[in-house]
Amino acid sequence: MRDLPYRDNVGAVLFNDAGLILVARRADLPNAEGAPGGWQLPQGGMDEGEDPAIAVFRELEEEIGTARAEILAEHPRWLTYDLPEHLVGKALGGRYRGQRQKWFALRFRGTDADIRLDLDPHPEFDAWRWARLGELPGLAVAFKRAIYEDLAREFARFAG
Predict the structure, then answer these.
(1) Are 36 and 139 in contact (CB under 8 A)?
(2) Can you tell me the distance from the alpha carbon of 19 to that of 107, in angstroms, rounded to the nearest whole number?
(3) C-alpha distances in Å from residue 16, one per residue of 23, 114, 115, 135, 143
(4) Which of 68, 99, 112, 135 is deepest in the core (most CB within 10 A)?
(5) CA dist 54 → 19, 21, 50, 86, 158 (Å)
(6) Can you name the CATH fold of 6-158?
(7) Where is this motif: Nudix box (predicted)?
(8) Which of 3 and 54 is assigned the larger pLDDT?
């Protein structure tokens, strides 16, 4: 596992005007309403050579149907996580040990009606909601929890 690389990835902590964040339920975990890991932030892989600030808007458009947002802050570090042993060789196309992520705090500049999970023929998410930033770590799968804790600390100044 340690000889596999990390996949470069971007993530969005999307705040509305009330200081709540958008979380979305993974379509492959539809019965995980209250279970950790069923809900997550929009994130996705970067194309080779792609600027992270451009990639985050592309990922928002692909995953939630809109990129009506503006960047408030960029996390000062790349954050990494390793997949649990049972997912190595299966998740992320089987080619990566985990992900190296650049996270952004963004202010949503649209309306709830702009968020469209039904535009992709194979959507990653099947539901979304606004949540308090402090809820974020409790929504994460165990192997992503430390990253979500870091994001909650780093971007607390934007929360309501």
Answers:
(1) yes
(2) 9
(3) 12, 13, 12, 15, 27
(4) 99
(5) 23, 20, 7, 33, 21
(6) Nucleoside Triphosphate Pyrophosphohydrolase (3.90.79)
(7) 44-65
(8) 54
* 3-state SS, residue 77: coil
Per-residue pLDDT tens over the stretch 117-154: 999 888 989 999 999 999 999 988 888 999 999 999 99
pLDDT at residue number 133: 97
The overall pTM is greater than 0.70: yes
**Rounded Cα distance, 30 and 32, in Å:** 6
Amino acid at 111: T
Task: Of 126, 6, 119, give the one whose Cα is nearest residue 62.
Answer: 119
State how far the Cα of 1 lies from the Cα of 4, in Å rounded to an integer: 6
**Whole-number Å distance between alpha carbons of 18 and 47:** 33
**Predicted local confidence at residue 35, as pLDDT:** 52
145 exposed, middle or buried (CB, 10 Å; 0-12, 13-18, 19+)? middle
Q: Where are the domains of the chain?
A: 6-158
> Hey, what are 146's tokens?
């430390």
Q: Give the sign of the dihedral formed by CA 124, CA 44, CA 120, CA 134.
A: positive
